[in-house]
Structures are given as structure tokens and as C-alpha cells.
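Internal tracking record. Fields below are filled automatically when a chain is submitted to the structure queue. Please do not edit lines marked as system-generated. If the sequence contains nonstandard residues, flag them in the REMARKS field before resubmitting.
Queue: standard
Priority: normal
Entity type: single polypeptide chain
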Amino acid sequence: MTMLRPVLSGLPVMLLAVPAHAQVHQFDEPLVLVPLPPPPLVLDLPDYPEFVPYVRAERPRLPLAVRALLEAAMKTDDGASVSAMVKFAQQTQPYDKDEIRDMQRVYNDRRAKEIAAKTEAELARIRASGVLELWKGQIEVGAFRSTGNTENFGFTAALKLNRKGIKWEHIIQANADYQEDRDTVTREQYSASYQPRYTLNDGFFTYGRTQYERDRIQGFADRYTLSGGLGYRVLNRPAMTLALEAGPAFRATNYVDDVNQTTWSVLTSIDFDWTINPTIKLTQDASSYIGSDNNTFTSMTAIEAGMMRGLKAKLSYSIEHETRPPSGSLKTDTISRFSLVYGF
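SYSTEM-GENERATED OUTPUT FOLLOWS
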């Protein structure tokens, strides 16, 4: 009993010390200050106007540099260049496509009216022209080298006339090759032909042909050909044309030593022209006469190069093959020609 008294006497002091210690630790924690919300923002503005102000402004337009470039291109007659310029302008100025299209539409309408007026004027000129008008032609003079029945050099001359109307086209051609060797005529070949064409539509046409030939070296004194048939323009572009012809042909041949013959045959021909550029032109003319007794194949390939206004240099190579030539004549003749061509 005496031992518990000191312990019990110290309990009140301990009990009083605990809350005091707790209160000290409460003041050691940091104080958190919560900010007060800001006061509402009040704007001091004038009274709202009764109407919305409107300012007039020009609509966005094509840049002047691009417009000037398009206008310069549209002053020409080159539709392909204009189309290319319009394409690039639309790619670089996508927001001005409508304005660019309007410019192109005006250009196309103007060009269509100009072409229509030009075509009508040309048709009126053709209708009012006489028989001796509208003819175009060329004269060719030069030299040649031949192999086959003769092997030598000689002189050549040719004439070609062409008249184009609305439906009719007339072609006249004449050729002459001549050579003498020690006062002996070693080559004397002449030919002339006339061919009218009548256009049925854009592709098909009918034709007639009369032709005279003379070549004593090859074995015939005279040969006359009369033919007619149907043709078709496979290509009819400004820089390239290709025409095919086929039809029956009547041939009368007066041989130098053999018996004269009159035969029927089938004529086929090819006429190809290619203007590679303004100064160079390639031509290919070929024909065949298929008969029961003799077949004739001819081909001439030529290239022309412009030298000056109206004057061209021409280099050509011709082959003529007879399946059954007269006795003493070779089947194939070839001629290489160099000549000057004057157009009028």
C-alpha cells in the first residue's frame, strides 16, 4: 500500500502534461491560406450601335503577273500553249480557278469565231475560183545514179501540180530521166499521170488515174494505164497524212521486141507524207499492179530539207521491179537521185 501511493500521486501531473504537449504540436503545423475569389470584371463600354458597319472591298482577283502571262499567250493562235498555261495557272492559283476558266472560255469563243469566219472565206474563195486558179506545184531538177539494166549517172526532172477544192482534188505529175554515154542513149525514161479524187467523207474518197510510161531500156516503148477505185485516208493530220488506194486497172503495153499486150490487173498504192519539222519532210510512195502475166512493184522514198524560201534539197531512192520483164531486161531497177525542188 505504501508503494502505490507515490505512483498514484504522480498521475494527475502526467494527465495534465499530455494535453499540454498535444497543444504545442498543433501550432507547429503550417497554416494554409485560402485566397478569396477575385471580384467580377466590369467593362465600361459605350452603348452597342444600332447597325453593323459595312466596309466595301474589292473581291480577290488573279495576280496581275499571272493575268498578263495568260493574256500574252491568248493573243496567239497556239491553242496547245494556251491550254498548258491555263493548266499551270490553275495549279498555282487554285482560288482563282473561276476567273482563269472565264478567260479561257472567252479565248475559245473568239478562236472558234475566227476559224469559222476564215473557213467560210476560204470556201467562198474556192467557189469563186476559175479552172486555172488554186493550183500549187513544184519543179524538180537534179542528177541520179542507176544500177541494174544500166550503171551510170544522168539527169532528172520532175513536175508536180496539185489543185484542192471543196470536194475535188486534181494531181498531175511528170517525170523524165535521161542520159547519154558517148553519144549513145543509155537511159530514157518518161512518165506522166493525172489523178482526180472526189471526197466522200472525212476518210473515204474515190479516184481515177491515167498514166503513160516510156522506158526502152527496160523493154517497152509505151505503156498506158487506166484505173479507178476507192481510197481511204488512214491519217489526215496537219503534219502527217497516209492514204491507201485500191481498184482495177487496165494496162496496154507496147514492147520494143516482144508482142504487145493488153491486160487487166489490180492496183494498190500507198501515199505517205510526214512533215517532221518546218524544214524537213519525209515521203513514201509505193504502188503495185498485180496481173495474171506480170506484176509491177514501184517504191520511192524521199527526204526533203528546206534551204531557203521556196527552195528545198531532195534525196530520193526508187525501186521498180517487174516479175516477168521483156527478154534481155533485168527484173529490178534502182535509182538514187539528188535534186533541187522549187515550190510555187
